[in-house]
Task: inverse folding
């Protein structure tokens, strides 16, 4: 490790370093940083998402399209990133084109880390989940099933001490080409633990009950479930290094109750439909409703500092005027046509468009309001939050799925980010709304696709507890 990186880690309080594959907008990066783990290299292919990560974390961007163009290779462009530099680096492009050699050379020349003698502590990655999700087509043989191979490939190339793989619950049950239910999950586990690989890794657990994490159990105001596979390099495992999955901190039989939707968003300025702004005034709370709200709001506002969780506003955002204690960003209430407005007025707290339709039908009042409903009514659309409970899962479709608990509008990007536990200083690039499936991801899609930072933080703290520190 060169002096520049070492000095940064000492000054900013980091003890471990990592590589962040399929990084998305940086939810995992944020949680890792809060725990003292610094992601050095990230890989992400979506333009707006790369910009979000870069601006929020003050990271340099290496565009693969400028390095490789067909058969032509621009070594001069790549060499500028091979100079000693403590800043994190986002590689923008298809991970299949990111070679092991490139990663190892960047580690060596940029950060002074020789993967043969010293290596990164963790390689993390959440390969795209669409082919595993219960809400998707779950097509057998989907090429995205094998994207996780890149995590294993790069992990072995740099001889990382540990691997963290994240994905959706649906991976447990997806069948292979022979129709064997759950075979994809077993194949992924077997791939991580292949004894013929060099280096070889040992899984901390394959037990679905242990590796399936509920975000609400760790202070995220959301009932989100994700599986996390953790592998430890076999030589370290043989020496007694063990990863222990985090114990829940919130919920029944815990020290703290669940963080609720009200805890998470009620302090934000009240903006109606079509109101709000990219940056608008924020009035800090003088008195909190409860300890949970105080804890959560202090974290997302960048004022939380306790052992194991240091949430500070990045200095580069303060200097650029993008965040201050009296400001909040991307808090714009979506606009709705008159027909949609009238429909939203019918949906009570905790209900949905589908449940409201059924209720009206039971009461014999549907004919009066039928014209407000679409022909096809999806169960996940237009669900209203309950103030004193955590949110249901925030997905990439959250603009169409989640309604404010009181106001007759969908949630703002900032409210969606709060429900994911993103800090208020986070800068989400791209348009507010874009056709879903377009290569340009809008703010809602980026937020919904991300790993909640507080959940990532809970996982990262356990790595800090078991892996000997660099610093």
Result:
């Amino acid at each position: 490790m060169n002096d520049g990186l070492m000095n940064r880690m000492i000054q900013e309080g980091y003890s471990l370093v990592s590589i962040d594959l399929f990084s998305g907008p940086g939810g995992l990066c944020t949680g890792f940083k809060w725990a003292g783990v610094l992601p050095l290299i990230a890989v992400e292919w979506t333009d707006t998402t790369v910009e979000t990560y870069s601006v929020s974390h003050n990271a340099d961007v290496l565009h693969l399209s400028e390095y490789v163009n067909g058969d032509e290779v621009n070594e001069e462009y790549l060499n500028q990133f091979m100079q000693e530099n403590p800043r994190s680096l986002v590689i923008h492009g298809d991970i299949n084109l990111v070679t092991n050699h490139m990663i190892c050379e960047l580690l060596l020349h940029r950060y002074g880390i020789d993967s043969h003698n010293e290596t990164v502590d963790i390689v993390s990655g959440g390969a795209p989940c669409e082919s595993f999700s219960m809400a998707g087509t779950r097509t057998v043989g989907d090429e995205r099933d094998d994207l996780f191979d890149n995590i294993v490939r790069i992990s072995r190339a740099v001889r990382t001490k540990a691997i963290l793989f994240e994905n959706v619950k649906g991976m447990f049950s997806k069948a292979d080409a022979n129709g064997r239910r759950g075979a994809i999950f077993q194949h992924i586990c077997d791939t991580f633990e292949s004894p013929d690989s060099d280096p070889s890794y040992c899984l901390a657990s394959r037990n679905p009950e242990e590796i399936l994490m509920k975000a609400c159990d760790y202070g995220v105001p959301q009932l989100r479930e994700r599986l996390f596979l953790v592998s430890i390099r076999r030589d370290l495992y043989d020496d007694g290094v063990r990863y222990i999955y985090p114990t829940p901190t919130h919920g029944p039989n815990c020290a703290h109750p669940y963080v609720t939707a009200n805890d998470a968003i009620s302090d934000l300025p009240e903006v109606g439909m079509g109101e709000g702004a990219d940056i608008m005034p924020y009035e800090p709370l003088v008195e909190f409703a409860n300890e949970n709200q105080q804890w959560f709001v202090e974290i997302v506002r960048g004022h939380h500092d306790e052992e194991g969780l240091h949430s500070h506003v990045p200095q580069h955002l303060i200097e650029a005027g993008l965040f201050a204690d009296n400001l909040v960003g991307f808090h714009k209430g979506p606009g709705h046509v008159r027909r949609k407005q009238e429909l939203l007025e019918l949906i009570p707290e905790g209900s949905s468009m589908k449940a409201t339709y059924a209720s009206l039908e039971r009461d014999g009042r549907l004919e009066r309001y039928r014209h407000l409903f679409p022909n096809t009514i999806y169960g996940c659309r237009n669900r209203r939050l309950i103030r004193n409970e955590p949110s249901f899962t925030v997905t990439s479709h959250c603009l169409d799925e989640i309604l404010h608990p009181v106001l007759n509008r969908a949630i703002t990007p900032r409210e969606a980010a709060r429900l994911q536990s993103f800090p208020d200083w986070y800068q989400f690039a791209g348009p507010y709304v874009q056709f879903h499936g377009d290569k340009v991801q809008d703010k809602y899609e980026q937020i919904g696709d991300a790993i909640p930072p507080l959940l990532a933080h809970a996982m990262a703290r356990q790595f800090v507890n078991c892996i000997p520190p660099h610093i």
